[in-house]
C-alpha cells in the first residue's frame, strides 16, 4: 500500500487529510522536528509527504529541502496559508513538487495528489523552474478559472499518454504550462470562449499566435530555453500542415510535443463545450488530417472503454436493428407511462418496426433515442 506522511505545523489539518486519503494510503503524522523517520515498509521514506506550513517563510523552505534530501524519492506537496501575491511569489522557489495556497478546497488537494502520483517513485525531482511555472499557473487560475481547469485536466493526461509512447512527459508538461501562461495574457473573454470550444476562428487563432511568437523569440535568446521554442511554436499547427505558423512544416516534422498538446487541447475544448468523452473522440476522429493518427490512437487507448464508444441521438425513423440503447426509453400507452426500451438493450427487427410504426400515434415517442456506438479509430475518420 502507498504510504503518506503528513507534516502538520498547524496541528489542525491531520484528521481532515487522513480522512481524505486513508483508503489509498497508509497515513501517519510527524512533527517538523522528527526528520528523518523510518516509515513502515519504506526504508527510503514515504511515497508522499503533505506538508502543512504555518508561514511559508525561509524555515518552510529549509524543511522542504531537508525532506527532499532525506527522502529523494518522495513526492512533496506543500500547503501554504493565505499570503499576499508578493509573498506567494517568494514561495514559488520552494522545491516542493506542488504548492497550494489557502483558501484551498478539499477537491483541489485531492486533485493535486492524484495528478502527482506518477512522481512518487521517480528518481528525478522537479527543478525550480518547474515549480515556478506551476505556481504562476496558480496565480493565473485565480483570475481566469478556465485556465486552471484546462491545466488540471491536461497535465495528468500528458503523463499518462507519454507513458504509452515512451516520451519525456516533463518536457511536454513544461511546454503546456508555458502555453497556459501565455493565454493568461490574452483578453479574458477570448480565453473563456476558446476554453469552452468557441472562438477558434482564424482571427482569434492568429491573435493567439502573436503571443506565442513573442515567447518563442524570448526562448530562442537563451541556450537553456532554446530547445523549448520549436515545440511551443507549433502547438496550433495541424498534422497536415494547415494552421499557424504559415510554413512548410507538416506531419512528422512537427515536434511530438506540439502534436500531443494539440490533441489534448482540442479534446479539452470539446469537453468544455458539453460533449461527452465518446462524442469528443468521435469529432476528433472525423477531423481528417488534423492529428497524428498514432498519437490519437494512443490517447484513445488511455481512456479505456470510455474512449471506445460514443453516444448519439437517433430519431425513431433512423433506428436500425443491432443498435444498443444508451438509456431507458419511455412512452405513454393509454395515458400511462411505460418503459419501452431498456438501457443496453439491443434493438431487434420487431422492436424497430413497432417503434417506427407507433412512435407518434401510440407511444408518443417524439424525442431522439440515445444510442451507444463503437468508435473504430482509423486514419481519416471513424466508424459510426
What does this structure look like?
With 384 residues, the chain is α/β, with parallel strands linked by helices. The chain has three domains: 1-124, 3-Layer(aba) Sandwich (Rossmann fold), CATH 3.40.50.2300; 127-307, Hypothetical protein af1432 (Orthogonal Bundle), CATH 1.10.3210; 316-367. The protein is 44% helix and 15% strand. The protein is built from 14 helices and twelve strands. It has helices at 14-21, 58-70, 85-91, 106-115, 128-143, 145-165, 169-183, 188-195, 202-219, 229-233, 256-272, 277-286, 293-302, 349-358, and strands spanning 2-8, 25-30, 48-52, 75-80, 98-101, 309-314, 324-325, 329-333, 336-341, 369-374, 377-378, 381-382. It has a five-stranded parallel β-sheet, with helices on both faces. A three-stranded antiparallel β-sheet has the order 6-10-7. A two-stranded antiparallel sheet has the order 8-9. Helix 5 runs antiparallel to helix 6 (145-165). The model is unreliable at 121-125 and 377-384 (pLDDT under 50).
